[in-house]
Write a structure and sequence with these properties.
This protein is an alpha/beta fold. The chain is built from 14 helices and 6 strands. It is 52% helix and 9% strand.
Length: 265
Amino acid sequence: MAWIQLENAVNARDVGDLPTDSGARTVPRRLIRTDNLQDLSPADITRLVDELGVTTVIDLRSTSEVKQEGPGPLTAVESVRHVHLSVLPESLGMTDAAADTAVHTAAEALAINRRRAAERDGTELLLSFYLGYLEDRPENVVEALREVATAPGAALVHCAAGKDRTGVVVAMALTVAGVPRDVVVADYVATGERIDLVLDRLRSTPTYAEDIDRLPAAEHSPREATMQGFLARLDADHGGVLGWLAAHGFGAEDVKRLRDKLLEV
């Protein structure tokens, strides 16, 4: 696993140099996944921008998370484009303006999303979350993949932990590129190597501290069965990742553009 060592983020890695069914490999410095970027040091920014070539940051956190955390230091770098694409159901059927008055904190938003996930399927909470991203914000999932495909340099995808929301988007991107399922799942599970560091980091900020210990620590660790179940549900219900994407406007040209971005020529 190509871990990226940063001073003030703990779950950063490059998903380059992965095998694909065609025999090609994914290209390093094209797609990077991380936990949140709020605490990056000057050295971290130099590493990401100057050394790894990050030009586009795709932030999957909710509006309330972004507001509570405030702008991270990377937002001050003019050469980096920042795109906010929440995959949580912030409005719950209302306008965004109404949602801002109804959901005041990130903890409240996450609690509402957890309740809705349990109502959808209480037997596998994380799997229910993942399916919920696709049901509630399909347009943002699709747009996140388009941003990866069109980034002039490396695209960096992140959420809070760099595990669930980021895990879903990256798994879909790698599947489009033709990375075998066991390798996609292995990339997802790799966050488990650093889960204690991830949880400690989330506990250090009021935005996440209250919410993080609502579940036992073991429940936060990524499991192979969760991602396998997510991809299997897409197979059964939509003809796979490509079928789901096609049904939501991500067509053949989009697929080609993303593959061209991620794969060696």
